[in-house]
């Protein structure tokens, strides 16, 4: 593992769950973890309700754009966390993989997205603990 651990969050559209997880990991690690996110079939733009839900908790992901998943991004990451992308996620030997089964916020209202956001936050805190990184806030 590199000096600064790195994590890659992958979902199909890279518009909701993976963006929220990346936003939390950036904010909660205080820069101690290198964070990437990508999608196997990226959307045109980030989910506006996911952005709103994150802003409610003080994390601004408005500047993020969905990105296509590359082999390089996977190889450069210590931990690869998938969120329902199934077979589209490339698997490399020696990587640590986790699959987070989370509801998809696409097309959902803010009331439905808040619990998804809160579960992602809790999982990111667990991930920080596993990486040996103290939460920054």
Please estimate the helix content. Answer: 25-40%
Shape: globular
The major pleated sheet works out as: 4 strands, parallel
Order of H and E elements:
EHEHHEEH
Broad structural category: alpha/beta
- Rounded radius of gyration (Å): 14 Å
Mean pLDDT: 92
Strand arrangement within the widest β-sheet reads 2-1-3-4
N-to-C terminal Cα separation, in Å?
A: 24 Å
How many alpha or pi helices?
4
Ranges where pLDDT stays below 50 over 5 or more residues in a row are none
How large a portion of the residues is in β-strands, by DSSP E?
5-15%
Question: Which structural traits does this protein have?
Answer:
4 strands, 4 helices, 36% helix, 15% strand, 137 residues, four-stranded parallel β-sheet, alpha/beta
Give an account of the 3D structure.
The protein has helices at residues 17-29, 48-56, 71-75, 110-131, and strands at residues 6-11, 34-39, 79-82, 96-99. By secondary structure, it is α/β, with parallel strands linked by helices. The chain has a 4-stranded parallel sheet with strand order 2-1-3-4, with helices on one face. Helix 1 (17-29) links the parallel strand 1 and strand 2. Helix 1 crosses helix 4 (110-131). The protein starts with 5 loop residues before the first strand and ends in a 6-residue tail after the last helix.
């Amino acid at each position: 593992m590199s000096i600064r651990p790195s994590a890659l969050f992958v979902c199909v559209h890279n518009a909701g769950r993976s963006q929220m997880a990346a936003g939390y990991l950036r904010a909660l690690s205080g820069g101690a973890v290198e964070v990437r996110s990508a999608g196997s079939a990226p959307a045109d733009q980030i989910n506006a309700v996911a952005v709103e839900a994150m802003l409610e908790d003080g994390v601004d992901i408005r500047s993020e754009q969905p990105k296509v998943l590359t082999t390089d991004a996977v190889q450069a990451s210590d931990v690869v966390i998938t969120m329902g992308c199934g077979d589209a996620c490339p698997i490399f030997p020696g990587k640590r993989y986790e699959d987070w089964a989370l509801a998809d916020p696409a097309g959902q209202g803010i009331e439905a997205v808040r619990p998804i956001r809160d579960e992602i936050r809790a999982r990111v805190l667990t991930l920080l603990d596993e990486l040996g990184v103290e939460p920054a806030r």
